[in-house]
Design a protein that fits this description.
six-stranded mixed sheet, 592 residues, 20% strand
Length: 592
């Protein structure tokens, strides 16, 4: 890659200000043959995966073309997409890494480079890096959202992924969607996990402490009320490393609390600071890292407020960041990373730790291309065994995709539209609502859409559908609430998902406006304006409060696909946007 003198000096200034050298920014344009040549550096290597969402086999996954940053987040990572992303991180266009990190020319790149991820290919890469670093010189961290996102994970209650992670060699993990199984299933799975499960912010409700059902669980601390170990200590390359866990703080809000009635979560800087201070005082570690499922914006804010953390390995928002963000706080600097999703990336942070301090580092976020990495034979056998009881069901061909079907972006993706159209058609509804989940894989044009693909998009433990009447005012309230979750300028108010997906309804959105004023000009597909006091027939799924009465969403989508046989989106219910011109978090958007 060639840099102008001005760009070179700008990057050198960043490095100097950080007191560290962000070498990944200066990496030359890499070809597939040398993508995985990562020179050994330092004495400690931390490997990081997150948000794999139970994808045991290779998949296609298209990165977003809309990831808007509003207010202080404008133009800052992770809120840059497409060419702005390449420029921000110094990645050359047109190569294998440009394909991995952006949506640009996605179909052509997918055809050229193939599928990504897959635990058999990921294990080959993990084993290679660990072997190059030497025995005992590395840790593998998992940021959570691992046990959910596929048919086999649903049917085995996450146990398929526990086995896969044990075989992969995960040392430490935290969680989010893990908690959407029944609490006794969570405890059972953690007991089977061979690594450490850490979550300093998950506590037992005070009223449940008197007769707590899991009082004999090894991670439970009755005195502090913590349900799980807050941290673990590991010796890596002769260095003492403390790994603190931060589970998704809004789990009982974003997901049904009925699955975890005795546990509280939350974001509390003082609690995290207390844990970090206690760890540093009592354990005397050389390095303190946090394995987090906050979401990157929340991690950035936490890093600015909590001192004593060297690195935050983040997840939840599925942001594949080729370089860490360096955050200053009252006592120094903290590196903040995020390693994408769906098993697509492996983060590799090599560190030089001396005299009880992080002195320097090198970071690479490695795309896991299944065409370039031989699958690990033992993992292949394990995956085949996991899938065998469900193979016929998963491989049923439901329809053919005539265009790229994807989910990932602040507003409707094409597979989201398929789900919304299915809800409307099968339930004879005027409007459909589908959650703004960020997990879900991609189907290429010409590919068969299998039941496997549908489960990848819909597989949760509360999949029931509904059909009900709502007023126009109710619908606007829902849209405003989700929009505030997405675009509130305070990261601690955000929950890390995307905008609710819609079928049969258009609107105008102003992400820069205040709560209650972002959603404008709602209208049905035929142009009829939505009236506040008029009722409309709405179909949806994934209710968080109480269980809905309808069939699982995957049955609805499968019925729809079997009927239409080929999928070409007739209309994408994506809103017109106001006041986002020039925002580097949006590109190739149809209604600018």
């Amino acid at each position: 890659m060639s840099l102008s003198r001005r760009e070179f000096m700008r990057l050198m200034g960043i490095a100097g200000a950080a007191g560290m050298f962000p070498s990944s920014v200066f990496a030359a344009k890499r070809m597939p043959a040398d993508l995985y040549e990562v020179p050994k550096f330092g004495n400690v290597t931390l490997l990081h995966i997150t948000d794999t969402h139970a994808q045991l086999n290779p998949v296609y996954f298209r990165e977003p073309n809309v990831n808007l940053g509003i207010g202080p987040a404008f133009g800052q990572a992770p809120h840059v997409v497409g060419e702005a992303f390449l420029k921000h991180f110094g990645v050359d266009p047109g190569g294998i890494e440009a394909h991995a990190f952006t949506f640009l020319d996605f179909d052509a790149g997918a055809e050229k480079y193939g599928a990504v991820g897959g635990f058999a290919h990921l294990k080959t890469l993990v084993d290679r890096v660990r072997a190059e670093r030497g025995d005992g010189n590395s840790l593998l961290l998992d940021g959570g959202d691992t046990w959910q996102g596929s048919g086999t994970a649903y049917w085995t209650r996450g146990m398929d992924m526990v086995g896969a992670c044990n075989l992969l060699g995960v040392d430490v993990m935290t969680g989010h969607w893990e908690f959407t199984y029944l609490d006794e299933e969570v405890i059972k799975n953690i007991a089977e996990f061979k690594g450490d499960f850490v979550a300093q912010n998950v506590k037992v409700r005070e009223e449940a402490l008197f007769d707590y059902r899991f009082a004999d669980f090894p991670g439970f601390d009755e005195d502090l009320g913590r349900a799980f170990k807050p941290y673990t200590i590991k010796e890596v390359g002769g260095v003492k490393v403390a790994v603190v866990g931060q589970a998704f703080p809004y789990t009982p809000i974003a997901n049904p609390q009925r699955f975890m009635p005795d546990w509280t979560f939350g974001i509390d800087d003082s609690s995290m600071q207390e844990v970090v201070d206690r760890v540093r005082e009592d354990e005397k570690p050389d390095l303190v890292v946090v394995i987090s499922h906050n979401g990157m914006d929340v991690d950035l804010k936490m890093a600015s407020r909590v001192t004593g953390i060297d690195v935050i390995f983040g997840g939840h928002t599925h942001d594949g960041m080729p370089a860490p963000t360096i955050v200053e706080n009252a006592s120094g600097k903290t590196l903040v990373t995020n390693a994408g999703s769906n098993g697509k990336f492996l983060g590799v942070m090599d560190m030089e730790v001396k005299d009880g301090k992080l002195q320097d580092y090198r970071y690479r976020l490695l795309p896991v291309f299944s065409n370039l990495l031989a699958p690990d034979a033992e993992m292949v056998e394990y995956i085949a065994g996991v899938r065998a009881p469900y193979k016929a069901q998963l491989e049923e061909e439901l329809a053919t995709a005539e265009e790229t079907l994807f989910r990932r972006g602040n507003f409707n993706g094409t597979f989201d539209q398929v789900i919304c159209d299915a809800l409307r058609k099968v339930n004879d509804a005027q409007i459909s609502l589908s959650p703004g989940f960020r997990w879900g894989t991609t189907v290429l044009p010409g590919q068969k859409i299998t039941m496997d693909n549908v489960m990848d998009q819909t597989c949760i433990t509360y999949p029931e559908t509904y059909r009900r009447e709502m007023t126009g005012a109710d619908i606007k309230l829902i849209l405003e609430d989700v929009c505030d979750n997405l675009f509130n300028p305070d990261p601690y108010v955000q929950q890390g998902g995307d905008m609710v997906r819609l079928g049969g309804l258009d609107y105008v959105c102003d992400p820069t406006a205040s709560m209650g004023e972002r959603i404008l000009d709602m209208a049905l597909d035929d142009g009829t304006k939505i009236e506040a006091d008029k009722t409309y027939v709405v179909a949806g799924w994934a209710t968080v409060g109480s269980q809905s009465p309808g069939e699982p969403i995957w049955e609805t989508v499968a019925t729809y696909l079997r009927d239409i046989k080929t999928v070409k989106i007739e209309k994408l219910n994506t809103p017109k946007l106001k006041n986002v011109t020039g925002n580097p978090g949006i590109a190739d958007y149809p209604f600018m």
